Amino acid sequence: MGNQYGYVRVSTKEQNEDRQLIALNGAEVPERNIYVDKQSGKDFNRPMYQKLLRRLRPDDLLYIKSIDRLGRDYREVLEQWRILTKEKKVDIVVLDMPLLDTRRGKDLVGTFLSDIVLQVLSFVAENERKNIRERQREGIEAAKLRGVRFGRPEKPLTENFEEVCGRWLAKEISGKEAARQCGMPSTSFYRKAEKWKNR
User: Fold this and answer.
1) Contacts of 79 (CB under 8 A, 6+ apart)
2) What is the 3-state secondary structure (H, E, C) of 77-103?
3) Which of 50, 76, 90, 134 is in Cβ range 3.0-4.6 Å of 60 for a Cys bridge?
4) Tens digit of pLDDT for each residue in 150-173?
5) Entry pTM
């Protein structure tokens, strides 16, 4: 029997990993052997996952809370599973899916069942990622229709903007000079001048 490791992933720095850590502590994974990434599951270019991968040796045991914590890309999850179990020769336990425990059922039927479960769960994880993106897109579109503006709030016009803009329109000064006098980048000046002119 090798060492026990745990892998935890949350999608953003704001999300809390406590639920996963509690599950790994319950499985008696040593705290020093738990690797945590705060990053999207769309691929496996994650620093702590890559560090874990380099550390794993044959007969080690890797715990994860759920398959979507490993990743959300269907093909990549299957490929990483293959690398872990076939190349690295480690066992994997998915805590919330007892069928995904490679220590059990090493015979043909056991392997076949866990492969089917893995493929279904990986597909579900990727599908959920697509659904999240679609819901975000729909939410943004709905907010735009309600008049919600995204991005940084626009800075108010400087006190001298109208006078400087008038001089620029009368071709008394260049756009670059007008932008300098208003204390803003040329692109911002042209955009604001266009709005002001149309108003």
Assistant:
1) none
2) HHHHHHHHHHHCCCEEEECCCCCCECC
3) 90
4) 767 777 888 898 899 889 888 899
5) 0.60
Q: Is 24 exposed, middle or buried (0-12, 13-18, 19+ CB in 10 A)?
A: buried
In a domain, 147, yes or no: no
Q: Is the pLDDT of residue 97 over 90?
A: no
Query: In DSSP terms, which residues pair with 5 in a beta bridge?
Result: 62
pLDDT at 106: 65
Residue 20: CATH number of its domain? 3.40.50.1390
Dihedral angle sign, alpha carbons of residues 44, 49, 51, 52 = negative
Which two three-digit tokens encode residue 183?
């204390």
Nearest to 7 by CA among 45, 51, 40: 51
> Which ranges of the chain would DSSP assign to H, the alpha helix?
18-26, 47-55, 67-70, 74-82, 108-145, 161-169, 175-182, 186-198
For 19, the 3-state DSSP assignment is: helix
Q: What is the pLDDT of residues 122-138, one digit of tens each?
A: 677 677 767 777 888 87
The answer as to whether 169 is a domain residue is yes
**Angle at alpha carbon of residue 75, lines to 70 and 77, rounded to 5°:** 15
Same structural domain, 47 and 114: yes
Tell me, yes or no, whether 13 and 84 share the same domain. yes
188 is catalytic: no
The catalytic residue among 11, 66, 186, 188 is 11
Residue 193 is part of which domain span? 161-198
100, pLDDT greater than 90: no
